[in-house]
């Protein structure tokens, strides 16, 4: 067996559990009638000998603990101290066992010193199952709002750490008060617990994780404000609009003149769209050099939805240098042209949106996405996308396993469409083209293209998921294409290595599939894609989600459209689905894996949680797709941050912490202070070997 396989999952051997949650008797080593140390040590030595038979060196790892243990650590260590002392004393009588406190690092060091050749395993253990129909693939998507909050928090922590390193230690007690990155660092670290970001904690615990993150944001925002003040030379109050996802920002809504500061944590310059709720109808925007930013657009906010009272939104394109910020002035003008209203382009047989990179076509009857055209490279792909839901198994009758926070178990393999057609509205301005889809009172989406944007943005809003019918629901976004991929699709591992997945297949053992849907779900941290020999369709995610490629060839979903014109390969049949991507879950039963309550998030009003998220869809050739999805995925993980000032803002209108941008295949993973005068700098190559002709080449950089 490999060094990573343990005989008792991660629990202690039988009879050797001494937590306050355990029932095993404590070790008694006195001379009285309750003495049991000899029997305990004998049991321990027997367990060690049995375990050692399966290991290749004379070092074995024995875990001592389990879930929720060590709340009262004294009980454990008092008994372990006795066990170690008495077990090692047996060496005087010929025992070959030496017990010691250790760590995984020390254990692996000894395996390395053994100078053996170990089996090489290149696949992972996903998807995990502890029995037929019991796949632990639900937690890939459980608590999507918290998953999104954790991703945002991780990115903002990088910004906080960078600015603390760039501006120096004085930012911890600057003009806006005491700030500290350690509060958010600790909260993000705690959120990495396997029952935190996974979404398998109870509701009140999830609330506490979110509270800790919010406290970390508060402290880091003070530090960021102090740093921008020191670097840029301003004492104007700086404001963070934390509710922009629901179109709320009091400063932009009430102030006729303000400043927008865009900070970019990446090692390359970025262009970034600014979208702020406002009450005026005409605005002028100036760039860091004082030149007018053109174009500036406004749209009616009711098209997008939100909780705020502002009637419209201000749109303009900002930019910022590597590891730095740019400042933009915004001034409300007198009465101007009315806001751009949603409209259909006159005389067109079907709705469409486009920029210089992509043209996206929609079905005029159903409102669904129909086709994506790559204008730069001259090819197109039929792509259908819509929302569906799986009816969650309740665990009744002949199907005892219910869907829950851990386990995904639909009661049928075919999902149910949220709606067969969507009500649509089209918006076209100089800065953005959007198609708004409304599938139901609880499911809507905006498909968006901006100038210069090589991807289609999908902004989805789902919830509150209705459960008055007594049915738990698992909501998916599904893409359908004619790409023939023989059951293969690809997901990332923690945003880095891309792993090939094959439906109903495991590389290192023979699989007997009991769940055709849940048994093919995999974690999608930042991307999932399918490809044939020529074309690749990639979907980037803004949070960890569950995803798969369930079907190869479902003609019934595309026959009414047939093959659209302009496809250079002349495909005439539907061969493959990409998806689904699971975006939201609301369940009414517990899955009996330790949570003890259904995954039924109430939201602020008790009606259920509303979640908004983003997917980026890339259509490219298979040979060059990585050149796009690698930097764009990183841009979603560590995205720029927007800060507002009520006055003119920093005197220094533009700043970069780098003398020059890094080569495009390098990512600046960490810049953070480490004690007096020391900074931790970590660089990461973005590309895997062989996935990009240019990007995968080694890079030399002069520090």
Automatic annotation (TrEMBL):
Binds 1 zinc ion per subunit. GO terms for cellular component: lysosome. One of its GO terms (biological process) is mannose metabolic process. Its EC number is 3.2.1.-. Transmembrane segments: none annotated. Signal peptide: none annotated. This is Alpha-mannosidase. It comes from Leptocoma aspasia. The lineage of its organism: Eukaryota, Metazoa, Chordata, Craniata, Vertebrata. The gene is Man2b1.
């Amino acid at each position: 067996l490999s060094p990573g396989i343990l005989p008792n999952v991660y629990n202690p051997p039988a009879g050797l559990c001494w937590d306050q949650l355990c029932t095993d008797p404590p070790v008694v080593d006195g001379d009285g009638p309750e003495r049991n140390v000899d029997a305990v040590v004998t049991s321990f030595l027997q367990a060690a000998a049995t375990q050692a038979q399966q290991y290749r060196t004379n070092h074995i790892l024995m875990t001592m603990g389990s879930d929720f243990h060590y709340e009262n650590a004294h009980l454990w260590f008092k008994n372990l101290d006795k066990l170690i002392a008495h077990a090692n004393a047996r060496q005087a009588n010929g025992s070959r066992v030496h017990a010691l406190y250790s760590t995984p690092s020390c254990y692996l060091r000894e395996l390395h010193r053994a100078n053996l050749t170990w089996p090489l395993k290149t696949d992972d253990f996903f998807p995990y199952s502890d029995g037929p129909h019991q796949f632990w693939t639900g937690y890939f998507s459980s608590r999507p709002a918290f998953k999104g909050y954790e991703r945002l928090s991780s990115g903002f922590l990088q910004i906080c750490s960078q600015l603390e390193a760039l501006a120096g230690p004085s930012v911890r007690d600057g003009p806006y008060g005491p700030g500290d990155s350690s509060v958010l660092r600790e909260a993000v670290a705690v959120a990495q617990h396997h029952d935190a970001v996974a979404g398998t904690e109870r509701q009140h615990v999830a609330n506490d994780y979110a509270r800790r993150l919010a406290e970390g944001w508060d402290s880091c925002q003070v530090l960021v404000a102090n740093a921008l003040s020191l670097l840029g030379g301003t004492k104007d109050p700086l404001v963070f609009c934390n509710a922009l996802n629901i179109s709320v920002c009091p400063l932009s809504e009430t102030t006729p003149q303000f400043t927008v500061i865009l900070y970019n944590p990446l090692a390359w310059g970025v262009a970034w769209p600014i979208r702020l709720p406002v009450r005026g109808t005409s605005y002028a925007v100036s760039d860091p050099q004082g030149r007018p930013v053109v174009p500036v657009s406004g749209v009616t906010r009711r098209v997008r939805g939100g909780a705020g009272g502002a009637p419209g939104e201000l749109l303009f394109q900002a930019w910022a240098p590597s590891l730095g910020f740019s400042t933009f002035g915004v001034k409300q003008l007198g009465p101007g042209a009315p806001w751009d209203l949603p409209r259909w382009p006159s005389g067109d047989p079907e709705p469409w949106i486009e920029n210089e990179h992509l043209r996206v076509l929609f079905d005029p009857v159903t409102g669904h996405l129909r086709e994506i055209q790559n204008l730069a490279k001259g090819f197109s792909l039929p792509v259908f996308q819509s929302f569906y839901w799986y009816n969650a198994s309740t665990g009744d009758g002949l199907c005892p396993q219910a869907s829950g926070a851990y386990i995904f178990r639909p009661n049928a393999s075919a999902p149910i469409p949220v709606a067969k057609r969507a009500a649509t509205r089209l918006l076209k301005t100089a800065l953005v083209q959007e198609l708004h889809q409304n599938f139901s009172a609880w499911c809507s989406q905006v498909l968006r293209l901006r100038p210069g944007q090589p991807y289609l943005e999908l902004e989805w809003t789902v919830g509150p998921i209705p459960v008055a019918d007594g049915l738990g629901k698992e909501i998916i976004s599904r893409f359908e294409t004619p790409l023939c991929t023989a059951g293969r699709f690809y997901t990332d591992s923690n945003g880095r290595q891309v792993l090939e997945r094959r439906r109903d297949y495991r590389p290192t053992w023979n699989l007997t599939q009991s769940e055709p849907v849940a048994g093919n779900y995999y974690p999608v941290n930042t991307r999932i894609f399918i490809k044939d020999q020529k074309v690749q369709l990639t979907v980037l995610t803004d949070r960890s989600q569950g995803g798969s490629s369930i079907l190869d060839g479902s003609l019934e979903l595309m026959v009414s459209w047939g093959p659209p014109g302009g496809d250079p390969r002349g495909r005439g049949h539907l061969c493959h689905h990409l998806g689904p991507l699971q975006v939201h879950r609301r369940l009414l039963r517990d899955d009996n894996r330790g949570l003890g309550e259904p995954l039924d998030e109430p939201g602020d009003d008790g009606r259920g949680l509303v979640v908004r998220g983003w997917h980026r869809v890339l259509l490219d050739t298979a040979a060059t797709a990585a050149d796009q999805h690698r930097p764009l995925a990183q841009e979603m993980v560590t995205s720029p941050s927007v800060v507002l000032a009520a006055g003119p803002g920093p005197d220094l209108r533009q700043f970069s912490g780098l003398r020059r941008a890094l080569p495009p295949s390098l990512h600046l993973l960490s810049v953070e202070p480490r004690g007096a005068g020391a900074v931790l700098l970590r660089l990461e190559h973005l590309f895997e070997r062989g996935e990009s002709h240019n990007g995968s080449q080694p890079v030399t950089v002069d520090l």
